[in-house]
Structure formats: C-alpha cells, structure tokens
Design a protein that fits this description.
- By secondary structure, the chain is an alpha/beta fold.
- It has a single domain, classed as TIM Barrel.
- Strand 3, helix 1 and strand 4 form a beta-alpha-beta unit.
- It is globular, with a radius of gyration of 19 Å.
Length: 359
C-alpha cells in the first residue's frame, strides 16, 4: 500500500507533504564485518525490514557454518527498535559444497548464492574463473529453488562495456541451460541490461541502485576524479541512466531495490588506487523517493521498494509502514565507520526527502 497526505499552498495548489509505504527491503547490501557492523547494520535496519547481505568477506563465505556465523554477528550488532532480518547468500565457487546448498533449505533466511567473476570487484579474488565449472552447483541450486545473484561483468575489455559483454557471452547461455533457476542480475547499469531483463523469462529479475539512477560518469570524472563516486559496475552514460530510471519507475515487477551500499574507509577511497563502492544506506530511502518524485511516479515507489523483491524471493511482504516527509535534510560530510570514517553518497548535499523518525 501507499498513502499520500497533502496540504494547500497559498495559491491553492496541492503540494505533497508525506508518503507512507510498506516497510521496504534492500536486496543488495554490503555490511563488512567486525568493528564496522555496529554502524553498517544499524544504518540499514533503521529503514529496511530486510537486507540481503553480500558474502564477499575475506575469507569468502563458502560454507553454511561460516554464513550462519556471519549472520549471528550481524544480528548481534543490530541495536535498533525496528524489526530487522538479515537475509544471506553463499559466495559461489568450487569450494561450496552441494550438501551445504541442500542443508540451507532448513534456514529460511539463506536464499541463494552470489556469482562473482574472479577479479570483477571488491574481494572477488575467490570468484569464478569458469562458469562451466560451477554448472553442477547451479543444477543443485535450481533443484533447491535457490536464487542466483550475479555480478554481471567480464574482467577484460572496455570497463564501460563489461556488463553488456557478460550478458551476451555468459548470462544468456546460463539462463538457457537452467530454465528453472531464478536469477537476479545485480546493480544493473546499462540500457543493454534493462532490455535483457525486460525480454527475459519470468525467472530473471534485476536490482537497481540509487546511484546508478542519479548519476552518470560525469559525476565521477568531469572536472576531476571524485573517488567517492567510483563503484563497480562503474557509472555509465546518460542514455544508460535514463533507461534505468524508466525501468525502475515502470511498475515492472522484474525490477526492485538493491542499494549495493558498499562502504570503505575514507583513506581507502582517497588514494592512488581507491576502492570501488558507494555508501548510500543511511539515506537510501530518501534517494529513491527523490528519484520517483522527479519521474512523477511516487505512486509506484511502494511496489519497487516493498513488494516486487519480496515476491521474487517468495517471502511475505513486510508488516508495518514507514513515512517519508517532503522535508530537506543535509547529508553530512563523513559518518562513523568503526574506528574510522566513511564519506557517504551525496556528502554535503541537500536531499528533498527525509524519513519520519518520530514514528
């Protein structure tokens, strides 16, 4: 459901004041581990009822025991009043046991496995070198009705073409070979990905981040390199950004929210070889509201944030509501990150929407 309330301006024009949506989900987030969890977990849990946590730690989470231990650490770090569930996914490589995939069905918060091409992004060195080599594991996942999450980029060629190359060279045959396997193409960043998902089977869906809809590569490169906007997949062309906007606000149930919020300490970004990742979690819901309002589609925000992802992952839609207010807020220049600091997305910028924290 979605609820709007209005007030009158002096000139008699209706102005939107608040939007109430079902408590949303984030179907792609990075929490890191250890000292960082106190900040990252609670940044998401303030506004999201569920978050699908990525498994690219060191060492990678390739066993059920390691995955459940990590989940215990996440839940122990949650200190807020709002109900929160960490959903988990294995790190997919040859070390992952078919027995663990089968055993995960006894744990409803374990929903799938994540495919990282080796070397494609942060902590992906233990990723997959050959898709064919993991086909037996994909067969087990298909039989167990687990979801495959895909970082869809090749690791060579022009960095702006790596997503489209992965789709044509690897993802198309994978989907053809596993017609019952549910697949989420994560953090799509190109028109090619939008077109592929729209034309694909019902078993194929995609997450879309706020940063890929708000920014293009000019935000990263024009007038100087801005390391806090460096992410993978990298920000693309304006035509790609517009395609993502259309997809997210189209009321197509194949597209839903996944922030890919990925924090790195400030010093790890601001150096000669800065890490890839944009930290959006604390303000993600405000970013998404801004996007949908600018497209004139606020009435479709609830489905994108709170229903389509739950339906695809076959979990109940959340209980409760969260209220967004048309009230400006300034994003701070830095936020705490363990004993360090992280620079959030849109640092020092004014956002037009806020979450009503009083409810």
């Amino acid at each position: 459901m979605i609820f709007f309330s209005y007030f009158f301006e002096v000139d008699g024009i209706f102005i939107l004041q608040t939007v109430s949506i079902t408590r949303p989900d984030d179907w792609h987030v990075h929490f890191r581990d250890g000292q960082f969890l106190t900040h990252t977990v609670n940044a998401s849990a303030r506004h999201f009822a569920r978050a699908l946590v990525m498994p690219n730690l060191k060492p990678a989470l390739t066993s059920l025991a390691a995955l459940l231990d990590y989940r215990d650490r996440i839940m122990a770090a949650h200190s807020g009043d709002s109900p929160f569930t960490a959903m988990m996914t294995f790190y997919l490589n040859s070390a992952l046991s078919p027995d663990d995939l089968h055993a995960s069905k006894a744990h409803p918060d374990v929903v799938g496995a994540k495919l990282y091409p080796a070397g494609a992004t942060t902590n992906s060195d233990e990723g997959v070198h050959s898709l064919r080599a993991i086909y037996p594991l994909l067969e087990v996942m298909q039989d167990c009705d687990l979801v495959l999450q895909v970082h869809g980029e090749v690791t060579d060629g022009d960095i702006f073409d790596r997503e489209s190359m992965f789709i044509s060279n690897y993802l198309q045959p994978l989907i053809k070979n596993f017609p019952r396997l549910r697949v989420v193409l994560e953090h799509i960043s190109t028109r090619a990905a939008v077109d592929f998902v729209q034309s694909g089977p019902e078993t194929l869906a995609a997450t879309i981040t706020p940063h890929h809809m708000l920014y293009n590569r000019n935000q990263l490169l024009a007038g100087g390199v801005r390391p806090h906007y460096y992410c993978l997949p990298i920000l693309k062309r304006e035509d790609d950004r517009l395609a993502l906007l259309q997809a997210a606000t189209s009321d197509n149930r194949k597209f839903f929210a996944g922030t890919d919020s990925a924090p790195h300490a400030q010093g790890s970004k601001e150096n000669a070889c800065g890490c890839a990742g944009i930290y959006s979690a604390p303000y993600a819901l405000a970013f998404y509201a801004q996007i949908f309002e600018e497209q004139g589609q606020l009435s479709r925000l609830n489905a994108f944030m709170s229903r389509f992802g739950a339906d695809f992952y076959r979990v109940p839609v959340n209980k409760g509501e969260i209220v967004l207010i048309k009230q400006e807020q300034r994003v701070p220049p830095v936020l705490p990150f363990g004993a360090d600091h992280v620079v959030p997305m849109a640092a020092n910028d004014m956002l037009p929407w806020s979450v009503d924290e009083s409810i």
